[in-house]
Amino acid sequence: MTSMPVSERIGSAIKRAEQALGGAKNAALKPAGVTVPQYAALMFLSENPGISAAALARLCGVTPPTMNTVLTNLQDRGLVERTPHEWHKNVLETRLTEKGEAVMRDADARAVRAERALAAGFTETERATLMELLTRCADLLDSIRPEAVPEK
Questions:
Q1: pLDDT digits (tens, 9 = 90+) for 88-140
Q2: Do 73 and 38 meet the contact criterion of CB atoms below 8 Å apart?
């Protein structure tokens, strides 16, 4: 038996919501032909043309090897192009192609519909409270260091 029931663990509820959102977004993005990680990469690339794979991985919350796999798949489909940086030849700059921009717009419209469907299940006050609480969770978790957590 664990020392804390699962029903009392905030992390379990956050993880369940995250998984449900991922499932809903995967279903919404499927007709656009991209996965959630691919969509995230396309979205951040649209806002940061020329970004490196390492920086893109940080923005998307994945490891650099995972991002390289995502980018290779997108490049193979002609959605992104990777070219050597002007000064740092071992750094590849990544940009959306025209086809990539079109796929990103389609995928983004689909993802936004999924987000709006989720938001519609809450009142305006509930949405604001949820956003505030989730932001506070993230900030608290970012500030926790293992050595700072008292053992009980």
A1: 666 788 999 999 999 999 999 999 999 999 999 999 999 999 999 999 999 99
A2: yes
Q: Tell which CATH classification among 3.10.129.10, 1.10.10.10, 1.25.40.10, 3.30.565.10 matches the domain 22-143.
A: 1.10.10.10
CA pair distance 4, 92, nearest whole angstrom = 47
Token representation of residue 120: 């519609």
> Vertex 9, ends 122 and 6: CA angle to 5°?
110
User: How many CA atoms does the CB half-sphere of 17 hold within 13 Å?
Assistant: 9
Distance CA 101, CA 10 (A): 38
